[in-house]
Amino acid sequence: MKILIYLWSALLLLSNVCSFQAEAARPNVVFIYADDWGYGDLSCHGHPGIKTPNLDQLAKEGVDYQQFTVCNPVCSPSRTAIMTGHFPARHRIHQAISGPEKNKSRGMPDWLDPELPHLPKMFQQAGYTTGHFGKWHLCGGGIEDAPLPTQYGYDESAVWTGPGKHVFNGVKLPDFDQDGAPHDEEAASYLSTAAVEHTLRFIKNAGNQPFFINLWLHETHHLVSATEADKAAYPDTPEPQRTYYSAVTRADKQIGRVLALLEELGKTENTIVVFSSDNGPENSHPNLGDKLYYSVGTTGGRKGRKRSLFMGGVGTPFIVRWPAKIPAGRVDDSTVVSGVDMYPTLLNAAGIDLPEGYQGDGENILAAWQGESFERSKPLFWEWQGNHTKEGNWPVYGMRKGDWQLLMDPHGERIELYDMSKDLLQQNNLADRKPDLVNQMVDQIRAWKATLPPSPPHTAVGLSGPPKKINPNRVKIFQTKDVDGDGVLSFEEYLGRSKDQKKAKEIFERFDDNHDGKLSQPEFVTPNG
Length: 529
Prior knowledge:
Elements (H helix, E strand, L loop, with lengths): L1 H24 L2 E7 L18 H9 L1 E3 L2 E2 L5 H10 L15 H6 L13 H7 L3 E7 L20 E5 L24 H4 L2 H16 L4 E6 L11 H4 L9 H24 L6 E7 L33 H4 L3 E4 L8 E3 L4 E2 L3 H8 L16 H4 L10 E4 L13 E5 L2 E5 L6 E5 L15 H16 L21 H10 L6 E2 L1 H5 L5 H11 L7 E2 H5 L4
Parallel strand pairs: 1-6, 1-7, 2-9, 3-10, 4-5, 4-6
Antiparallel strand pairs: 2-8, 7-8, 11-12, 12-13, 13-14, 15-16
Helix pairs in contact: 7-9
């Protein structure tokens, strides 16, 4: 009898040891998401001036994917795709989530539904400790009843552009000791540093418990700013490049602090570190004093920028390192990877099952991470409902199927087709040579669109050639006045440097056909508006 008891005790002990080992073997995850950081803004991507030594080293120790794309060329929808594994249009999030009135006019919610099985929630339910530090923007600004990050599956959070604890709360920075917003020039230089302080503390406090962390940086969203200490790295670089380069290098230094702590704690080997950006670089403005004057990011030669479905707008850096599982030092220029793939891939890497009944738009690309051959079984789709005031912003829909990417306006009157295996810079439009493929892909885009919730019709000017009564000079004036690039003019933007506010107000109100307090491009450029 005693022998049986001893055997049973031994089996229980062995079971507990195996359980502990399985717990310990689960990888940690640090997902670093930059903001408006262009594909070309890395030394390892060929930038001639910017210094990014920590990200360059991360790429050497992992895999650098050159055909990664986000699922929308602006912030909120791009992040929605990462957290849900769904194309953001499925949740009616087409543009940056703003205040209630603007969200309503765009047919958008005021926040991303917290009841969805979000990525951090899945990790939390599997026993991970979870944290979100940095930008949020999954709800609109100034909305008092917006859900807190805890409702999305985070144990801890400290954010900006979102509810709950602010990123400057609970940290002490040697050179900055006050609250501030992302659009405050001084505060903008310290937002990511504060987020990293929270991240370092969170990692230390996690102990042996596996962790999932979102570290969402400020750089290089406007206001792009840098301290004199930051600028010391670029003494001979002229402005506005000096400030931009300094901001990027500062963010790279902060990322290096996280990587160094992982190494110090012996967690490097079994921690998945991902670095990417939510969309391409912002459109810069040439005049000193413009809030986008220092936004001089680069796409690495790719067409389009932020708010464009061309690769310059949706093709962003994507580096992943996991020494325990991923071979180091690869540059992958062929595997098609997308933001929606993060959900199934990270869960699979951690041994976590997908939610029961979950229907995602992404694919588990763990095999590709590990160097195995991988081909997508699902196409990728894009819909851009924002402004179309730049030539590179004309596409409303996009589709990637195999090597082919198709872009089209809302009516299918303007279509471009590219072989991405040979033409990543999208210089050679093959639509006229591949009519059968074009028709097939257009039908698939329309079929996909039919699966989405209803949304406002696209009314942007110039998608299929300018209407007959449009004054092209006023189009250019509109583009100049639209400083924040949101596709409408506030009265302040319309007024500009004019001193006659009374007269300007009268004209503004006369042009404002729908009396919503802002001017759309059609309202502004119509001669008799």
